[in-house]
Amino acid sequence: MVGELIGAVAAVCAGGVVYLAAAARVVKQYERGVVFRLGRLHGDVRRPGFTTVIPGVDRMRKVNLQIVTMPIPAQEGITRDNVTVRVDAVVYFKVVDPAAAVVNVEDYRFAVSQMAQTSLRSIIGKSELDDLLSNREKLNQGLELMIDSPAVEWGVTIDRVEIKDVSLPDTMKRSMARQAEADRERRARLINADAEYQASKKLAQAAHQMADTPSALQLRLLQTVMAVAAEKNSTLVLPIPVELLRFLERGGRETGGQGAQAPVEQAAGRTEQARDAMEELRHAVEQ
Question: What is the pTM of this model?
Answer without folding.
Answer: 0.60
